[in-house]
Write a structure and sequence with these properties.
Low-confidence stretches: none
Mean pLDDT: 89
Strand content: 5-15%
Number of helices: 19
Bound molecules: protoporphyrin IX containing FE
Structural class: alpha+beta
Helix content: 40-55%
């Protein structure tokens, strides 16, 4: 006879999808309440599916590091395979490890150093287009900028005016994936003529067109033996020809990797920057302190160097604190392959594991006065005493963010350059509402007034 499973505490609703509905409607509040009510580990049902929500750093470490082999990415990410295919974010096992070894060197610090020139130039160019006293949507601006930067630095591609619809297409895809996660959401796909399916197909086609344009331009350059480049797209194209131990990478696999880097490489950073400018605009004393540091490091503003960036300690603290309050990746999901133990509980195979940076980063046990934006909390002493997975905006372990060094360099540079040239002020009509799709976005954009610094 099978032993009865002991589940951790959690909400027990009479209706099978009640908690699932709450979660999908307002995941941040639902998870926050779960953590406050049930503590380090809780359990609920999503239809027939067992879901465990982990809220203790040691349990998260168990899943992401100690027993990582027992977990694959959960359904939440699997739905994004419809757009990303089997790229680095969504692939699994040996194929993932092989691709990770191929892609990771692109983001080593010595490579990142080479990208700073493009990052600086593109940020200054964007600032040149801004008009004194105007109102801009800083989320749009940051999305365009980070897209431009990832395309040029890592994929060797100049974004063209005809690539204009990227932001809208990506939003349509993310909203579509959210709908598919709703109870019975997958039924939507069974009726192709529904406008929502047509909208997704069109958005995917737009993104595909751009990615194939990137690949074809590069291929032509390789064939013509034009100046040899060493960006990631060249590495991937060469890996296609080398047919290494995993066999030749197909055109589809190449497309999937490029689409993944192209999308994962800009949207998260754009959100981190958007929330940072929002926080700075609502905390003038922190903005002033930041500006003081930036002025002291960039005494002659257009002549920035890689070494200058290392000196921007307070800027780094501002971004660290901003990603604590508004982690662009606000939750991670995994699925257990085999039964396993977390704490005193046996987790049956097939269970979904949820972990939320948004909830953990606001835990008063680790972050006193957790809802206050306070960059000065990030002293060396404070960091030393933090448990490993109490702060993890970039995930951890073998599936941690491959672009983390890139993201830090880019976010520090953009924050510093913009802050040195422009003051960004919140306006009363700016309605700030969180929209947690795959990433944590501002639902209505982020409209801000910009004025030149003296
Ligand atoms: C502030 C910016 C960023 C944040 C907060 C962020 C966050 C994350 C997180 C949390 C993961 C782990 C997901 C999981 O474990 O399920 C991840 C993975 C990944 N990120 Fe980032 N990311 C950022 C920027 C970037 C950039 C700039 C790139 C590329 C240039 C990038 C590419 C990737 C890729 C390819 C993966 C999958 C890695 C793997 O599974 O091996 N990310 N990111």
């Amino acid at each position: 006879m099978k032993e009865a499973i002991e589940y951790p505490p959690g909400p027990k609703d009479l209706f099978p999808y009640a908690i699932a509905r709450k979660f999908l409607r307002d995941p941040l509040t639902t998870l926050t309440i779960l953590s406050q009510t049930y503590g380090d580990i809780s359990h609920f049902k999503f239809g027939k599916q067992n879901v465990y929500f982990l809220n203790h750093p040691n349990y998260i470490e168990d899943v992401l590091i100690t027993n990582y082999k027992n977990f694959i990415k959960s359904k939440g990410l699997q739905v994004s395979k419809r757009l990303l295919g089997s790229g680095l974010v969504t692939s699994e096992g040996d194929y993932h490890d092989h691709q990770r070894r191929l892609i990771q060197p692109t983001f080593y610090p010595k490579k990142i150093k080479l990208y700073t020139e493009v990052m600086i130039k593109k940020t200054l160019n964007l600032c040149d287009t801004w008009k004194e006293g105007s109102v801009i949507d800083i989320h749009n601006e940051m999305t365009r900028l980070t897209l431009d930067i990832i395309s040029k630095t890592v994929l060797g591609y100049d974004i063209k005016p005809e690539d204009d619809e990227i932001g809208d297409s990506l939003l349509i895809c993310m909203e579509y994936f959210n709908r598919l996660l709703m109870p019975f959401g997958e039924l939507i796909e069974k009726i192709p003529i529904l406008p929502i399916n047509k909208g997704f197909q069109k958005a995917k086609k737009n993104l595909d067109t751009i990615v194939f344009r990137m690949i074809n331009e590069h291929r032509m350059k390789l064939e013509k033996k034009e100046e040899k480049d060493n960006d990631l797209l060249f590495t991937l194209l060469q890996a296609q020809d080398d047919s290494a131990e995993m066999g030749k990478m197909t055109d589809q696999q190449l497309r999937d990797e490029v689409m993944t880097i192209f999308l994962a490489g800009h949207e998260t950073t754009a959100n981190a920057l958007t929330w940072t400018f929002y926080l700075l605009s609502t905390h003038p004393e922190i903005d002033a302190k930041l500006q003081k540091e930036i002025y002291s490091v960039f005494s002659h503003k257009t002549d920035l160097s890689f070494d200058d960036i290392q000196k921007l300690e307070y800027t780094t603290k501002v971004l660290t604190e901003s990603m604590r309050l508004y982690p662009p990746a606000w939750a991670l999901g995994r699925q257990a392959i085999n039964d396993c133990k977390i704490g005193k509980y046996t987790i049956p195979s097939g269970s979904i594991i949820l972990m939320s940076q948004y909830v953990m980063h606001r835990n008063p046990l680790y972050f006193p006065d957790p809802n206050t934006f306070y960059p000065d909390r990030w002293t060396d002493e404070f960091k030393k005493n933090l448990p490993r997975f109490s702060y993890y905006p970039f995930g951890g372990g073998i599936r941690s963010c491959v672009g983390e060094p890139f993201a830090w360099m880019e976010a520090i540079l953009i924050t510093a350059i913009i802050n040195s040239l422009w003051k960004v002020t919140n306006i009363p009509s700016n309605k700030v509402v969180l929209k947690p799709l795959i990433t944590l976005r501002p639902k209505y954009g982020m409209r801000m007034k910009i004025t030149r610094r003296d």
